[in-house]
């Protein structure tokens, strides 16, 4: 049990560091607010190596702590919506054997953006924000693919470390 708690703490800290790096070094994708989603790398790896409950816990703890430390309540609301929808989609698709790690990660990238747009629509009461969604879906596909490729390389190594510990 203590090894599992230690691993969870390590992964949570890593996800927070990745989030902080994205705040410090914003990459301009040509789309306002779009990020690579490095913290999602941790969520995907944990989903495949430690299971859905642990991945959800790490994702939610990271969102709350990063928002409280570097953001604000609005940022937390957007991140929670994106994180929950993203996680839900990834957890469901992971159960379908035909979906690869990359496919699961892409779904997470897309659904994160969908969740954030839905919250933005509710906050500003403007359905026209949906017109922004196709661009965000393309971005989510690209970043989800990159995160998925890296995750696919990391997961076997993390699995081996967990097995040996």
List keywords for this structure.
mainly alpha; 165 residues; globular; Arp2/3 complex 21 kDa subunit ARPC3; 6 helices
Write the layout of secondary structure elements.
Layout (H helix, E strand, L loop, with lengths): L1 H23 L13 H12 L2 H19 L2 H22 L6 H24 L8 H32 L1
Helix pairs in contact: 1-2, 1-3, 2-3, 2-4, 2-6, 3-4, 4-5, 5-6
Description of the molecule:
This protein is mainly alpha-helical. It has a single domain (2-159), classed as Arp2/3 complex 21 kDa subunit ARPC3 (Orthogonal Bundle). Helices cover 80% and strands 0% of the residues. It has 6 helices and no strands. Helix 2 packs parallel to helix 4 (73-94) and helix 5 crosses helix 6 (133-164). It is globular and about 50 Å long. The mean pLDDT is 93.
Helix run count: 6
Q: Residue share in helices?
A: over 70%
CATH topology name, in short, is Arp2/3 complex 21 kDa subunit ARPC3
Order of helices and strands: HHHHHH
Report mean pLDDT, rounded to a whole number: 93
Q: Which sheet architecture does the biggest sheet show?
A: none
Structural classification: mainly alpha
Number of strands: 0
What's the short story on this structure?
With 165 residues, the chain is an all-alpha fold. 80% of the residues lie in helices and 0% in strands.
């Amino acid at each position: 049990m203590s090894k599992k708690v230690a691993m969870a703490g390590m992964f949570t800290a890593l996800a927070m560091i990745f989030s902080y790096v994205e705040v410090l070094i914003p990459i301009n994708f040509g789309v306002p607010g779009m990020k690579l989603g490095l913290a999602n790398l941790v969520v995907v790896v944990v989903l495949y190596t430690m299971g859905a409950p642990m991945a959800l816990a790490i994702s939610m703890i990271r969102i709350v702590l990063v928002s409280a430390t570097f953001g604000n309540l609005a940022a937390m609301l957007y991140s929670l919506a994106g994180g929950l929808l993203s996680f839900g989609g990834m957890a469901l698709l992971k159960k379908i054997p035909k979906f690869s790690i990359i496919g699961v990660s892409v779904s997470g990238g897309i659904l994160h953006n969908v969740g954030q747009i839905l919250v933005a629509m509710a906050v500003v009461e403007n359905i026209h924000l949906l017109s922004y969604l196709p661009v965000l879906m393309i971005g989510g596909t690209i970043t989800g693919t990159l995160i998925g490729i890296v995750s696919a390389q990391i997961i076997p190594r993390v699995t081996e470390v967990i097995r040996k510990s």
